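Interim report, section 4.2 (structural modelling).
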Amino acid sequence: MTYPRIVHFLRQGKPDQLVTVQGWIRTKRELKGFTFLEVSDGSSLQGLQVVIDLEIVQLVDSVRKCHTGASITVSGVLATSPGKEQSIELKAQSLIIHGESDPGSYPLQKKRHSFEFLRTIGHLRPRTNTYGAVFRVRNACAWAVHQFFQEQGFLWIHTPIITASDCEGSGEMFTVTNFNLGQIPKNPNGSVDYSQDFFGRPAYLTVSGQLQAEILAMAFTNVYTFGPTFRAENSNTSRHLAEFWMIEPEMAFCDLEGNMDLAEAFLKYVFKVVLTNCSADMEFFDARIDNSVLAVADNIINNEFQRLTYTDAIALLQKADRQFEYPVEWGLDLQSEHERYLAEDLFKRPTIVTDYPTQIKAFYMRLNEDGKTVRAMDVLVPRVGEIIGGSQREERLEVLEKRINEHGLSMNQYWWYLDLRRYGTVPHAGFGLGFERLVQFITGMANIRDVIPFPRAPETIEF
Ligand code: 4AD
Ligand code: MG
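Predicted structure of the assembly:
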C-alpha cells in the first residue's frame, strides 16, 4: 500500500482528515504529556509535525522507541496547528516503528554539521535539510532539461560511455580494460599489446558525447545527450569532478549565434522551472546557503547575457583595477579568477566569451577568417565561472584535416568523423553544459561535491 506523500498533506491537507504517512524521524521533542516528532519522507523541505498524546496508552510503548533517524508509519487525523512553524499537524492514533535508530550512535544530530563532515557519511546525508533541497532541485533541473529540448523537437540520443576516441584531445581519459593488471600482455618492444585486450585496441571512458552527437545531428538535425562523462583530471577544486553529467545539444544548420541564443534560452528556462517547482527549497538556499541565490535567479531570467570576443575580454582584463594571480595575455587560457571577474564584477551577469585562440581550444572548432581564432564560446557565470563550453564545428573537410594534423592526432582514428564532412556536410554547432555546475550555480552551493549524491574525485569513491 502506498500513501500520498507528506508534501501533499502540507499543501492540501484538511483538518479532521484521516491520513497515514511514512517516513523518518527528523527530531523528537518531549513536553509534559505530549511528544512531538518531525517526520520527513523527502518530498518537501518541511516535515510533518506528529503530535503524540501520551494519554493514548497504546502509543506510549512505541513512542519511547522513537528516536531521530527511525522509520515509522503513523496514522491519525490532521488538525490545524497552534504552532507558528507549521499550519497543519497530525494527531497520532497508531504508530508502527519499522527500524529503530540508536540515539547514541546516529551521526545526524540536531546541530548543524559541516559539509566536510557530511561528505564522510554519504549514506546518511541525503536525510538532511540541505541535501534534501539540493537533490530535489537537481531533479527539477533534469526534468527542465528534457522539457526544454523536447518542446523544441530535439531528439534525446544516447552516446556511448566506453569509447576509443578522445573528443577533447587533452588526454584526461580513464582507460577501460579487462587485462589482469598484474600480467599485462606486452609487444616485443615492451609496449602494451592492446590487440589482446577486450576491444582489441585502447578504450576509454568518454569525456564527451559530442563526436557521436554530431553523427546523429547529421541525420536528425537537432539532438541532445544527457549522460555521465569522465575526466581523469587530478584537480582537487570546488568545480571539478572525475565523474559528472553533461548535457550536449548539437544542431545542424546552425552557427555560433544560434548556439549562443540556444544556450541563453536554455539557462533561463531551467531557472524558471526550478523557481516554480522548488520555491521552498530555493528560499532555503537564499536564507541558509548564499543570500544572492534569488537575486541571481532573477538576474538570469530578466537580463540579456553579455557577449564579447576573447580578444576584447583580454583587453578588459588587462585594464582591470586588480592583480590577478595568473598572467593575462593574448594566447593564454582564461583562469577561473578571470572568468569570475568578467561575470561577477565587470558585467554582473552571465557572459559569453567567443572566438578563442586556436591553440587553446579543441581541434573540431571552426577556424575563423583570421586563421588565429576559432568559433568557440564559453558561458561564464557568477560564482562558478565556466558553466558551458561549445562551438561552431569545422565542417570543411580540408580545414579539419589540417587541424587534426596540427593537433598531433591520428587521422585514422577520426575517419568516420571526417566522413561526415565528405557526405552532406553542413554548418553545425553545439555545446556542453556541466550539470553539476548548473546545480551549483542555481543553489549557491560552494562545492561541486555537495550537488551530486555520490561524488567521484581523486581518492573519493567510498559510497
Ligand atoms: O568545455 P568542455 O570540456 O566541452 C566539451 O566537452 C565539449 N565537447 C562540449 C560540446 O561542445 N558538446 O566541457 C563542457 C562543460 C564545461 O563547461 C563544464 O561546465 C563541464 O562540462 N565540465 C566539468 N564539470 C565538472 N567536473 C569537470 N571535471 C568538468 N569538466 C568540464
Ligand atoms: Mg571548456
